Amino acid sequence: MQEILDAILAEQYDAIGELSVPEHYQGVTVHADEATMFEGLASRDKDPRKSLHLDEVATPELGPGEALVAVMASAINYNTVWTSIFEPLPTFGFLKRYGRTSPLATRHDLPYHVVGSDLAGVVVRTGPGVNAWKPGDRVVAHCLSVELESPDGHSDTMMDPEQRIWGFETNFGGLAELALVKSNQLMPKPEHLTWEEAASPGLVNSTAYRQLVSRNGAGMKQGDTILIWGASGGLGSYATQFALNGGATPVCIVSSPEKAEICHKMGAELVIDRNAEGYRFWKDEHTQDPKEWKRFGAKIRELTGGDDPDIVFEHPGRETFGASVYVTRKGGTIVTCASTSGYEHQYDNRYLWMNLKRIVGSHFANYREAWEANRLISKGLIHPTLSRVYPLAETGQAALDVHTNAHQGKVGVLCLAPQEGLGVVDTEKREQHLEAINRFRGV
Q1: Residues 6+ apart with CB under 8 A from 320
Q2: Omega before residue 418 within 30° of 0, cis
Q3: Which residues of the chain have pLDDT under 70?
Q4: What sign has the CA pseudo-torsion 16, 59, 184, 421?
Q5: Alpha-carbon distance 389 to 395, whole Å?
Q6: Secondary structure class of 262 (helix, strand, coil)
Q7: Quick one: which H or E segment has residue 314?
Q8: Which tens digit of pLDDT belongs to each residue from 7-66?
C-alpha cells in the first residue's frame, strides 16, 4: 500500500497499474460474532466506537466489470451508523443473501463486513470488460450496486431486483485503504476539491438530487416552496442548495441558532429553529398533537407570505411525518427516505386523501442521477458540506458524532491520505469557490 500511496502523492498516476496490489489492507469492520453486543440497550446508548474495528483484511478477488480503488478519503453516512449499532438488523443477513446469488458473490459473505458507502481515490486495477476506466484514474464512487440481469432495472436501475447499497448491503466498502466497486459506480473526481471534500458529497448529494430534483422523486420546479427538514445536515444541506439553484424557495427547519446561521450562509432566507419554537408533535409515545401541526403550518405561512409547501423533503420519519403530511399544500408532495427517527410513520389520512397530496418514496439514485449530481459538484454549482475530518483509526468516533447528531453536514474520514488538503488539481476554480467549500468547516 505504501508504494501505491507514494505514487499517488507524487502524482505518478501512470505508474500505478505496474505496482503490485497488496494481499491485505486495513479496513473498518463490524464482526458477525458481535452482532448481539448491544442487546437490551436503547439505540441512543449504542456506541459505534465499541463495534467498529480497524482490521487487516484480505484483498478480494477482482471480477468482471469491477475495479479496485485505493481510497484516499471516505465519509460517514447514517447507513454506517445503522451497521455499527446492528439496527434495524445486522447487515450480515444482507451479505449472506448476496453471497447466494452467484459463485463470485460468495466473496461478500464473510464473518466481517468492511463498511462505508463513499470514497474518493485512484483506480488500482480493473477487471475484464472494463473499458471506461483504467489504473491511475482519479475517481469518486456512488453507492449503487446493481446486476441488471432483470428487465426491471433497465428504465431505472434503482428498480433492479438485485439493487444494493455498496458498503451497506455489500462488503468491501469505502472506509478502508482499498475498496471493491463495480466500474459503473465510478465518476470523475471534482478536481478543485481535496480528497476528503470530494469523498463527502457522494451518497447524500445523489440521494437529495433524486429525492428533490429528479422526475423519479418530487420533480422540483422553479417557484416551488420546499420545506426541508434538517436543512443543515447531511441530506438537507444538499437539498437546500438544490432548491436555491433551481429557483425554488427553501423553508429550512433546523434545531439551533448555529444551524440556522449555516442555512443563511448558503443563501436561504426562511429558517425555522424548531427547538426555539418549542414544537412537540407528539403528546406521548403513542399520541400526536394536531394543534402543533397547525401551529407549525401557521409559522410556515407567516414566513412565506401565505404559501404552504409544494414539496416536503422528509427524512426524519416517525417524529415529523404527521406534521409533514398536514402542512403540505393541496396537491403537493411529501417525498421521503431514511426515517432516522423511526420507520413506522403515522399521519391523518384525511389530510392526504381529501387534499390530493402524494407520498413518494425515494431511495438513493440511479447512475444517471448520481452522475448529474456529481457533475454539479464538479462545475462548482453545488458545494461539499464537510465540517470535520477524522483519521481512519477514529472512524468509531466519527460514526458516534453522526449517531448523536453532534455534527453538521458531513463528517469525513482520511483513509490513505496522510493529511487534509491534498488532491487539488484545479486551483483556479478552487479559489473561486473557497468560501462556499469551507462553509461548514469547524461548525
Answers
A1: 229, 281, 314, 341
A2: no
A3: none
A4: negative
A5: 10
A6: helix
A7: strand 311-314
A8: 999 999 999 999 999 999 999 999 999 999 999 999 999 999 999 999 999 999 999 999
Report the SS3 class of residue 331. coil
Residues paired with residue 73 on neighbouring β-strands, in sequence order = 120, 414
DSSP structural state of residue 213: I
Q: Please give the C-alpha separations between residue 436 and each of 140, 142, 267, 354, 383, in angstroms, as whole numbers.
A: 20, 23, 11, 43, 7
Answer whether 374's CB lies under 8 Å from 142's CB. Answer: yes
User: Which neighbouring-strand residues pair with 217?
Assistant: none
The answer to whether 340 touches 320, Cβ cutoff 8 Å, is no
Q: Is 207 left (phi over 0), alpha (psi -120 to 50) or beta?
A: alpha
Please give the model's pTM, rounded to 2 decimal places. Answer: 0.95
Residue 425: C-alpha distances to residues 193, 205, 371, 381, 435 (Å): 8, 22, 20, 18, 18
Do β-strands 225-228 and 311-314 pair in parallel, antiparallel, or remain unpaired?
Answer: parallel
- Residues 60 and 293: their CA atoms lie apart, in Å, by 51
In angstroms, the CA 343 to CA 355 distance is: 24
Q: Which residue has the cell 415529523?
A: 320
- Say how many C-beta atoms besides its own lie within 10 A of residue 131's C-beta: 7
Residue 62 per-residue DSSP state: P
- Distance between CA atoms of residues 167 and 180, nearest Å: 9
- Cβ-proximal residues to 328 (8 Å cutoff; 6+ apart), any chain: 227, 308, 309, 310, 311, 312, 334, 355, 357
415 closest CA partner among 7, 25, 16, 23: 25
How far, in Å, CA of 107 to CA of 71, rounded? Answer: 20
**Exposure string for 326-336, b = 16+ CB within 10 A, e = fewer:** bbbbeebbbbb
Residue 440 burial (C-beta neighbours within 10 Å; 0-12, 13-18, 19+):
buried
Does residue 434 sit in helix, strand or coil? helix
